[in-house]
């Protein structure tokens, strides 16, 4: 018995032994298996990938060291310490100023990373973040400086005079937007396409980043307060630092000028420029002046509202500048004319000169104002320029990469590119987006090589990592574009963007576009942009971020009434708008699914779109909604940004948007290209705090309408009929969404209570149970009102 079982064991072990031996076989002939059951090629590719990753890691470290060193040198130079250090240390000096001692270098690095707000520049490899030293609580609050208040008031008066001028200018049909640039245009100078030939001096100053030249020039210009004007006198041109400072100054003027990036130069970038107070006798009665200041401040808001009101009538989108005035290919101009694009929009007029010049730019313009064309034209020019140099290359390089946050947006931009490429036979564009088969992408790339790729970050990284030869093609990249840049630089996408930026050449032009650019994004934009990039802002600090012709209102009602209200508002709108086209935004995919089923049951012509739907379905619905009238699209945030559905008459947002920016983008699906539109925000009473986040936007709080009893009953009957699994999924999704919102998610007991109220509103009495793991992850285990699955 024993010997037979031994025999059986041995016979089992034999195949394993043989497979191990096969690894040791000499090279040549016959199939071989490698550890993990990989074949030879998979094994080889795995090793190549690992080697690439290692190389990338090393490069990254080296890059960081280099950049840190460079920053230290700049800092040392600006503080004048370098020469002393050079004298102290025996090491050689570069260009007249020596490197810092290692001690100073470490101190400088610490300064730079410990600066408040530098967390975004922190890298995993840099080690843990420590908070900046806090101000001691015992520090007495600074006394109110009455003199400063009076001086501030004078500045306020100046601002007001400036504003009334600009408002007059707007009556004069002139747009106001600002370009914050490292290089400034001279008074009366023309944009590139208007100049016969650029002077040598100009091209010298633009070539490369001359540390000394640029910094000194910027300093001189900022210090002297030089404001230069281009041919487009309506552009106010400011250095980026001016702009940053202005942002900081909103709450009251600070007599300081910041130079270079605060995060990069530590304290050395702060120049103190004292305002000289006027002698006392000149100042008159302080008390009276202070009272006037108060009055001024009170009036200021109403004055701005007035200006906005007038602006609403005056805002025009198209400028007098025509596309054929700018130096783009005649073939593109023909295509533009075919698409009936003759005059430029404001953002195109402002951004094209900068982008065509080859400068890095961060561009902010309202939703629906033609940003896509503003970056696609330079994209085509970049390909044309690159093609002349790459005619004989065996592999066709990818010259332009456009990154978008959503698949629908990528498809739309590729379609728009094709419109502009109508007469360019040799140039192609392709999309790389999730939700399609990877193999199909590969086939398309091989059979139909293209120079322009429009991609979502995840799928692009798949190709970089897994498609042999793709990274090599990316080495020909000349222009990187981030559409909806603030979203792409958000935490959700940032890591992917960092990886993509690491996979493309450093010598490239980068353009970032969005309708919203929060301050924090301006800081991290340096992940992609060069330091001397240009900031083109067609909205301006005093401007409103939303289209002026869109009427915005807000209803506050308890959850139980939300679905009834949505139905009522839709009915009303349909009655008054024969060609209605409505988008209803919900907080999550599953809440969207619930809303869709409800409205469908209420016999509305409704479609649904969210991330849980297959890509083919999403594309079909997107196309149908674009082409149709008298239709309602219920959607999650997949449709919030960039997608251009023409003639949307109403946007309803149910529940709080994830951020102010998201509110603006969702609203921007209506009122495109200067058209009129309507936006309604529907909040529960406890969500009303969001109104502070959208402070400054012209949203009017509206009275709740009387709800018809029959209609109420109808909605309740429909809710009753909805499948319990849809309701359950909606509850779970709702809980997840609000848990992730800081203001609500931090008080778990309250969250559970609110979730129960939502539960009632969708017709469930008892909240559905959560998986133990999910509850743990969400920090909801053991919270009253949260049920856990047994
Ligand atoms: N010069 C032009 N003349 C007329 N129409 C234009 C012009 N440029 C763009 N458009 C139209 O403007 C509409 C909006 O353009 P686009 O989608 O590029 O806006 P956007 O600024 O990118 O909006 P969002 O911020 O929502 O992404 C499109 O329908 C486009 O066809």
UniProtKB/TrEMBL annotation:
Domain DEAD-box RNA helicase Q: 321-349
Renumbered residue ranges of the record's region Disordered: 77-100, 121-147, 179-214
Regions of compositional bias (Basic residues) in chain numbering: 183-193
Methyltransferase in keyword set: no
One Gene Ontology molecular-function label: hydrolase activity
Domain description: The Q motif is unique to and characteristic of the DEAD box family of RNA helicases and controls ATP binding and hydrolysis.
Pfam families membership: DEAD, Helicase_C
Organism: Cocos nucifera (Coconut palm)
Helicase C-terminal domain ranges (all copies): 569-730
Purpose: RNA helicase.
Basic and acidic residues: compositionally biased ranges: 77-87
Entry keyword Transmembrane: no
Protein name: ATP-dependent RNA helicase
UniProt-listed PROSITE patterns: HELICASE_ATP_BIND_1 (PS51192), HELICASE_CTER (PS51194), Q_MOTIF (PS51195)
């Amino acid at each position: 018995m024993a010997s037979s079982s031994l025999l059986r064991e041995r016979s089992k072990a034999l195949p394993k032994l043989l497979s191990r031996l096969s690894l040791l076989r000499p090279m040549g002939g016959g199939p071989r298996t490698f550890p993990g059951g990989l074949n030879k090629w998979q094994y080889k590719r795995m090793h190549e990938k690992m080697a690439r990753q290692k190389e990338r890691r090393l490069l990254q470290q080296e890059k960081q060291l280099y950049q840190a060193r460079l920053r230290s040198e700049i800092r040392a130079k600006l503080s004048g310490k370098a020469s002393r250090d050079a004298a102290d240390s025996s090491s050689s000096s570069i260009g007249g100023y020596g490197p810092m001692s290692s001690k100073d270098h470490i101190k400088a690095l610490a300064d730079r990373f410990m600066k408040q707000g530098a967390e975004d520049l922190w890298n995993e490899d840099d080690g843990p973040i420590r908070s900046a030293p806090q101000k001691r609580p015992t520090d007495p609050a600074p006394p109110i400086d009455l003199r400063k208040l009076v001086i501030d008031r004078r500045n306020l008066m100046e601002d007001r005079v400036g504003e009334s001028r600009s408002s007059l200018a707007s009556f004069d049909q002139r747009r106001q937007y600002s370009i914050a640039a490292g290089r400034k245009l001279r008074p009366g100078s023309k944009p590139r396409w208007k100049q016969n030939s650029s002077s040598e001096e100009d091209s010298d100053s633009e070539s490369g980043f001359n540390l000394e030249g640029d910094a000194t020039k910027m300093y001189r210009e900022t210090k002297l307060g030089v404001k230069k004007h281009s041919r487009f006198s309506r552009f106010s041109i400011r250095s980026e630092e001016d702009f940053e400072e202005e942002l900081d100054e909103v709450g009251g003027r600070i007599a300081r000028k910041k130079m270079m990036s605060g995060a990069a130069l530590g304290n050395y970038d702060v120049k103190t420029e004292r305002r000289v107070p006027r002698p006392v006798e000149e100042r008159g009665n302080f008390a009276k002046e202070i009272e006037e200041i108060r009055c001024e401040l009170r009036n200021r808001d109403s004055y701005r509202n007035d200006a906005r009101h007038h602006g609403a009538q005056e805002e025009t989108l198209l400028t007098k500048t025509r596309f054929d005035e700018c130096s783009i290919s005649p073939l593109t101009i023909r295509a533009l004319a075919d698409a009936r694009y003759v005059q430029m929009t404001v953002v195109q007029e402002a951004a094209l000169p900068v982008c065509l010049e080859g400068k890095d730019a961060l561009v902010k313009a309202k939703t629906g104002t033609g940003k896509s064309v503003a970056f696609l034209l330079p994209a085509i020019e970049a390909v044309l320029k690159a093609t002349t140099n790459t005619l004989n290359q065996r592999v066709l390089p990818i010259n332009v990469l456009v990154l978008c946050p959503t698949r629908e947006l990528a498809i739309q931009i590729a379609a728009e590119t094709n419109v502009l490429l109508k007469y360019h036979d040799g140039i192609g564009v392709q999309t790389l987006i999730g939700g399609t088969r990877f193999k199909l992408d590969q086939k398309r790339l091989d059979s139909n090589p293209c120079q322009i790729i429009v991609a979502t970050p995840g799928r692009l990284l798949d190709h970089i990592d897994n498609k042999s030869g793709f990274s090599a093609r990316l080495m020909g990249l000349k222009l990187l574009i981030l559409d909806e840049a603030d979203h792409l630089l958000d935490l959700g996408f940032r890591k992917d963007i960092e990886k993509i930026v690491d996979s493309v050449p450093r010598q490239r032009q980068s353009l970032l576009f969005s309708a919203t650019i929060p301050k924090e994004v301006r800081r991290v934009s340096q992940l992609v942009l060069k330091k001397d990039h240009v900031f083109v802002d067609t909205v301006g600090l005093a401007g409103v971020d939303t289209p002026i012709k869109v009427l915005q209102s807000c209803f506050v009602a308890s959850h139980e009434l939300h679905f009834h209200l949505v139905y009522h508002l839709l009915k009303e709108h349909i009655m008054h708008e024969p060609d209605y086209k409505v988008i209803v935004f919900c907080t999550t995919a599953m809440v969207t699914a619930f809303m869709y089923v409800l409205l469908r049951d209420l016999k509305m012509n409704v479609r649904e779109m969210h991330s849980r739907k297959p890509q083919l379905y999403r594309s079909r619905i997107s196309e149908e909604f674009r082409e149709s009238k008298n239709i309602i699209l219920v959607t999650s945030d997949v449709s919030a940004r960039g997608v251009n559905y023409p003639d949307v008459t109403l946007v309803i947002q149910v529940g709080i948007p994830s951020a102010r920016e998201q509110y603006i983008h969702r609203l921007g699906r209506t009122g495109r290209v200067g058209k009129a539109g309507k936006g309604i925000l529907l909040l529960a009473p406890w969500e009303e705090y969001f109104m502070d986040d959208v402070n400054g936007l012209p949203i009017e709080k509206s009275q709740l309408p009387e709800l018809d009893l029959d209609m109420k009953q109808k909605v309740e009957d429909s809710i009753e009929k909805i499948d319990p699994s849809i309701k359950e999924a909606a509850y779970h999704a709702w809980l997840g969404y609000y848990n992730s919102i800081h203001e609500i998610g931090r008080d778990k007991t309250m969250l559970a209570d609110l979730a129960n109220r939502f539960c009632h509103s969708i017709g469930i009495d008892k909240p559905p149970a959560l998986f133990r793991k999910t509850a743990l992850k969400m920090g909801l285990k053991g919270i009253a009102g949260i049920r856990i699955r047994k």
